[in-house]
């Protein structure tokens, strides 16, 4: 406790309202700059799941955001838009097995207008909801 008292006695001359206000203002400005600068999209490469997933594209705050390409260890790829790490917006998912979906995604699933082409080149074009083709008759 004595050391704390000595430390206080040494630096109490600097503990004025003026100095505390300046310090507080500096902390606020630096915090605002950090929030602003950390939300600027940067081009980057992320390797996830011990190298099983590789992402090359726009990164915001360490997450896949914006345009990019993800390649999975099994050879599947997705090229398109990401929001907070999930497929969202326009994109193309190509399976190594030979099928492909081109269209709109929401929360990682085909949702909206799109085209699914199977391994046998059968084409399903229309509306998808939660990954399921809606125009079946």
Automatic annotation (TrEMBL):
Record-linked Pfam families: MORN (PF02493)
List where the protein spans the membrane.
20-37
Q: Which organism is it from?
A: Streptococcus rubneri
Asked whether the UniProt record includes Hydrolase among its keywords, one would answer no
Q: Which lineage ranks, top first, belong to the organism behind this chain?
A: Bacteria, Bacillati, Bacillota, Bacilli, Lactobacillales
Coiled-coil region list = none
Q: Which Gene3D superfamilies match?
A: Histone H3 K4-specific methyltransferase SET7/9 N-terminal domain
Keyword list (alphabetical) reads: Membrane, Repeat, Transmembrane, Transmembrane helix
Protein name listed in UniProt: MORN repeat protein
Keyword Transmembrane helix included in the entry's annotation? yes
Q: Which InterPro entries match?
A: MORN (IPR003409), UCP034300_MORN_rpt-cont (IPR014590)
